[in-house]
Amino acid sequence: MLTPRLTVNVLTRNAQARLPRLLAELPAYADEILVGVDASSDDRTLEIASDYADVVYRFHLPRPGQLSPARALPFDYATGDWILSIDDDESMEPTFDALVGSLMAAPNVTHYYFPRKWIVADDPYAYVDAPPWFPNWAPRLFRNDRSLVFKPAGAHTMYHLLGPGFYEERTAIHHFEPLWCTPKQRAAKVAAYRTAGATEASETYYEIPHDAPRRPVTPREPALPVVRRAGVVHDAIREAAAPEHPPWAASFERVEMPATMRPGEVALVRVTVRNTGVLTWAPTYAQWPANQWPMLRLTYHLYAGDGGEIDYEGNHRTLLPRVVVPGEAVTFVDTFVAPTTAGDYVVAWDMLSEGHLWFSQIGSAVHAHPLTVRDR
Fold first, then answer.
1. Mean pLDDT, 10 residues at a time, the chain of 376 residues
2. Which residue, 21, 94, 143, 264, is the most exposed by fewest CB within 10 angstroms?
3. What number does CATH give the domain 6-239?
């Protein structure tokens, strides 16, 4: 059995002072190093990344300082079986090196959460041992499969990950932002988050009381950055734009239901739908925007013959019967209850991300099925 390979991705901007320290650490556990550099950087960040990374790519952000739109870009470059996403003001705890191989080799697991330790002192090193700064779980290690990962737009939004995930407490992420950021830099960061629509709760992380409990921590031993094999630097500047909604897409291939029914009649229907998007569908029970994979259902709108939509109490949702990967089709089997009033109708079949949106709202076509209701 081949050993899983790990790609580490770093997004950065104007980090010439701290980037060498992080890049020096990565060869201890990374098989491939990607560095995404914000095109607005005006120091030596790009040059440093070019010396030590396997792949360097550049991106432009719609809002300066808000990296969320760029979080999906590593899928276009990573060749490893897994991706570790780490920021330029972070470091993996030394215990990570010995653990990561077994974590990636675990069958059926798709992602891991790690606790973050907010480092507030370096002589000796210590972190804040109190909520919300610890454990501050963050999903950072996941399989290199874009159909299982979605990163919403917006400040401080977390990855939405499909499949079995675990919280790994035997190692942690060291977060040096409290130690390395000046008060002025921190105020600018908070202002940027406010502009991007972050919640007030996210600002509490940047107001650490002086009397907050602390606990000592063992940092990674400093290492000199080692020039890696000749890397690839992509000169083109990518536009980083995370979608507000998951890029769901579907096409209806077959709808088996009567064309004529009696008022209130119950009929068996079979609807075959193909997943034409890039994300996997799964029978989950979470409503958006919970930090879980959204619940998807088959449902419909009912229209009168004149085109007006009817608020129909018989409308119900049908859960997915199984996991549906991109490109695959699934058949739903359920019952349909005809309206109690005779007339001509159109049943517009659609897919729904529960508590979120209809697929037709983001470009997928509905399947319009004519229905006549009459006494026989």
1. 92 93 93 96 94 94 79 94 96 96 96 97 94 95 95 74 94 94 73 60 76 93 68 89 83 98 96 97 73 86 88 79 96 94 95 91 96 91
2. 264
3. 3.90.550
